[in-house]
Give the backbone structure.
Amino acid sequence: MYRDNLAVSFEGREQTYAALFERACRLANVFRACGAARGDRVAVLGDNAFETVEQAAACALANNPRATLYTYQSAATNRYLLELVGARVLVVQARYAAELVPLLEGLKELREVIVFGEGPRPAGTTDYETALAAHAPDDVLVPVEPDDVHIVRFSSGTTGKPKGIYHSVARWTQYNNEWRWVTPMLTERSRYLVPASLCHLGVAFLWGTLAVGACIIPVPAFDARRVLDLLESHRATHTVAAPVMIRDMVRDATARQRDFSNLQCLMYAGSPIAPETLDAAIEVFGPTLFQLYAQSEAMPITMLLPHQHAPRGTEAERKRARSAGRPTPNVVVSIRGEDGRALPVGEVGEIAARGPSTMSGIWGDPRATADRTLPDGSVLTRDMGYMDEDGFVYLVDRKDDMIVSGGFNIWPSELEDALRGHPAVSDACVFGVPDDRWGETPLAAVVPAPGRQVTEDELIAHTRNIVGGVKKITRVVFLNSLPRTATGKVQRNALKAPYWAGRETRIAGS
């Protein structure tokens, strides 16, 4: 139907649907020749690239679950994840192969390492283009059943070792269908610009775009000016970004001089968005912001729609603009207490989500799957929050990030919001560190605003004024930047771990 439509546009290189199908079939046949039978996992590691879409399509055609590794993880972590899922084939970008390939010895299930992109090929690996050229472009029509595993996504590992979250074909299909209810409709005229990883947040509209014959425009690395150029020149209709990306784009000196009239959907997720960034984003991009709340275990959960982004509206509207939105139509959200029972409106507890697009399970860990699943099928998110009388969901913090200091429960997000409200603070992350008197105490890692200076004592006093003496931060370290995942989440564990080294710590169980 769409063979002549443009499927992929990447850095001046274009691919029609006919070419995408041919190359995906060739790659699927490469997987089979490597010994990857139906159901065997194929792991992929790389930046957004011309080849990324065809790799996802090849895995689907061959019925090989795609295990999506992340470039921000260490090589040792990715080696652990390859072993965890028993990957039969690894497809890796050349720039990441040199560090990872030497660690692969001893992986009993791994049969082949295929290297794509510019750069040297380590000894013992297979060249991507050579392999494609050597195999036929025939689709051998591998059977696919609804309960077959389609994808394995790894938790971001911000609070411990990543886990493999897997979804069946049926559940991933429902995940893709759910977007149709809460975002502008995709058509063959849509153009999806992807500055976020197509192995993470960027996957949101991947199959929806392909299903209607539209164009995907992957961006290999985020640069605010470059993304603004591409949004404008490609007349993009849909895009996704982390709040930190939006912040950098609206701060660009050229942002307000551009034409984004074709843009229908700028979906963001991964971390809170600062009020000043929200204001500026509405000014620059118009009423196109959709705030997604989701996680690998449950996607999507809620959505805050453009008309609900009203930072300058009535008091009720301003409050709702700080929420994560309402549940999407086929998802039921409840707030649960420690005993698993549903809590009333306004009471803080663990957010649980039930719907057709929640995870099938946690790879190789039935106990962890059971721990995250309630008898009615709801998935516990490990996020704490509450729901108001109109169904808007408000996030408080990660359950495992709570700081217990002198018997008081302290949520880092409350302190982070207070710090971000200080004019000399650009970014902040709060976490608990050991304290001989209180057990643990809140420490803030702070990135100062450009050209501004602030002292530790000033920030401690600032948080005392906002949240009180019991919850205030007690220590501050100043950094040039905070470590983040591909979706913009601060890697709290990377900041926290050195303070707990050699001690009994709550990090390991979080």
User: Anything to note?
Assistant: The longest strand covers residues 425-435. DSSP finds 15 helices and 26 strands in the chain.
